[in-house]
C-alpha cells in the first residue's frame, strides 16, 4: 500500500511531503467557498511528485450548481483525482444519499473523461446513511480504527483515512505510486492488477471437529463475493496464484475448553490438491461462553498454487465451528 495525506486551509502550505505518494487538497465547499491556500498546497504536492487530488465539501441543495462550482474552481489537470466529501455540515445538516449520488454523477458528466470521481465519507455514513452504496469510481473511507489499511467496511475501497494526527493520513490500496497514477489517468481500471479484487466467503451451517482430528480445511459453502474467481463453489480455496492478498477470517467456536488452544493456519496446495507449504500458526484461546477470534491473512501464493484455511483442535471433546467469515483483497499477478 502507499501513503498520502489530505489537507485544507487549516493545514497551511508547509506540510511535509516526505514519504508521501499522494496529496488530496480541499478545493471548494457549497457554492461560495474556495480554499485560499489551494494553489500553494497543490504546487507543494506536485513539486514532490505526488499524485494530486481535490475534494468538494458537499452541502444539501443546489447539487448541480455545487458540481459546476467545484470543477470550475479546483485547480485540477488531467489525471487528478476528484472526490466529494460527504459528512455533516457545520450547521448540523447533511446532503442526502440521493444528493451525494447526483453530485458524483454531475461531476462525472462534467469531468469524467479525464478524471476519476469518487466518494469520501466516514464509516458511519457508509454503513448507516448510504442506501445506494454508490461511490463513483472509488471509495475513500474514514475509519479511525487503529488498523491502517483495514477499514471496517466490506466494500472495495481506494483510500483509508485512519488518523487525523498530526494531519489527516491515508493509505492507498495500490501497489505503488505508479499504479495509482495509472489508475488515476484512466489507463488502468479498478479490476486490473494495480487494484485489488474483493473476496467474501462464509459457511452456511456449522461443522464439527472430532476429538484428535488432524488439520481440517474450512469448506466455504457461502460465496457473497468472489471478484478474482479463485473460489470454487463449496470449495476450501479462497485465492489462486499468482496473487498477493490481505484480509482476515473471523471464527466463532463452541466446545473449546477455557484456556485451551485452537489453531488456524494458511496452507498452500498445488494443482493436484497436494499440500505443499504451511504458513505460521495463529492460536485462539478458549473462553467462557464460546470462543471468538479474528485471524489476519496476509501473503502471496505462487502461480499454479492455491490457498486454504485449515483448523485444528487439541481437546478430547468435539469442537464446533459455528461461523467462519473470510474477507480479503486480492491483487492478481502476471
UniProtKB/TrEMBL annotation:
Name of the protein: Uncharacterized protein
Top-level taxon of the source organism: Bacteria
Family to which this protein belongs: Belongs to the glycosyl hydrolase 25 family.
InterPro entries named among the record's database cross-references: GH (IPR017853), Glyco_hydro_25 (IPR002053), Glyco_hydro_fam25_subgr (IPR018077)
PANTHER family: LYSOZYME
Any matching Pfam family: Glyco_hydro_25
GO molecular function: lysozyme activity
GO annotation (BP), single: cell wall macromolecule catabolic process
Keywords on record: Glycosidase, Hydrolase
Keyword Cell membrane part of the UniProt annotation: no
Amino acid at each position: 500500500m502507499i501513503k498520502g495525506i489530505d489537507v485544507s486551509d487549516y493545514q497551511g502550505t508547509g506540510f511535509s511531503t516526505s514519504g508521501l505518494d499522494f496529496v488530496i487538497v480541499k478545493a471548494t465547499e457549497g457554492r461560495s467557498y474556495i480554499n485560499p491556500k489551494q494553489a500553494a498546497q497543490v504546487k507543494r504536492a506536485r513539486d514532490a511528485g505526488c499524485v494530486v487530488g481535490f475534494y468538494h465539501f458537499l452541502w444539501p441543495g443546489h447539487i448541480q450548481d455545487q458540481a459546476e462550482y467545484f470543477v470550475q474552481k479546483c485547480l485540477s489537470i488531467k489525471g487528478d483525482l476528484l472526490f466529494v466529501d460527504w459528512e455533516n455540515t457545520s450547521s448540523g445538516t447533511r446532503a442526502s444519499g440521493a444528493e451525494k449520488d447526483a453530485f458524483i454523477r454531475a461531476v462525472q458528466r462534467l469531468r469524467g473523461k479525464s478524471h476519476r470521481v469518487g466518494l469520501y465519507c466516514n464509516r458511519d455514513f457508509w454503513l448507516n446513511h448510504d442506501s445506494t452504496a454508490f461511490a463513483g469510481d472509488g471509495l475513500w473511507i474514514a475509519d479511525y480504527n487503529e488498523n491502517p489499511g483495514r477499514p471496517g467496511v466490506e466494500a472495495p475501497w481506494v483510500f483509508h483515512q485512519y488518523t487525523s494526527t498530526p494531519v489527516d493520513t491515508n493509505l492507498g490500496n495500490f501497489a505503488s505510486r505508479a499504479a495509482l497514477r495509472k489508475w488515476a489517468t484512466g489507463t488502468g481500471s479498478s479490476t486490473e492488477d494495480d487494484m485489488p479484487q474483493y473476496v467474501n466467503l462464509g459457511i452456511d451451517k456449522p461443522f464439527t471437529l472430532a476429538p484428535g482430528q488432524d488439520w481440517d480445511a474450512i469448506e466455504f459453502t457461502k460465496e457473497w463475493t468472489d471478484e478474482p474467481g479463485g473460489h470454487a463453489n463449496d470449495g476450501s480455496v479462497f485465492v489462486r496464484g499468482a496473487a498477493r492478498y490481505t484480509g482476515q477470517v473471523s471464527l466463532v467456536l463452541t466446545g473449546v475448553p477455557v484456556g485451551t488452544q485452537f489453531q488456524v493456519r494458511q496452507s498452500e496446495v498445488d494443482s493436484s490438491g497436494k499440500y505443499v507449504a504451511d504458513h505460521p500458526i495463529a492460536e485462539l484461546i478458549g473462553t467462557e461462553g464460546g470462543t471468538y477470534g479474528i485471524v489476519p491473512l496476509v501473503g502471496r501464493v505462487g502461480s499454479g498454487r492455491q490457498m486454504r484455511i485449515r483448523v485444528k483442535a487439541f481437546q478430547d471433546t468435539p469442537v464446533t465451528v459455528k461461523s467462519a467469515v473470510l474477507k480479503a483483497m486480492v491483487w492478481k499477478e502476471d
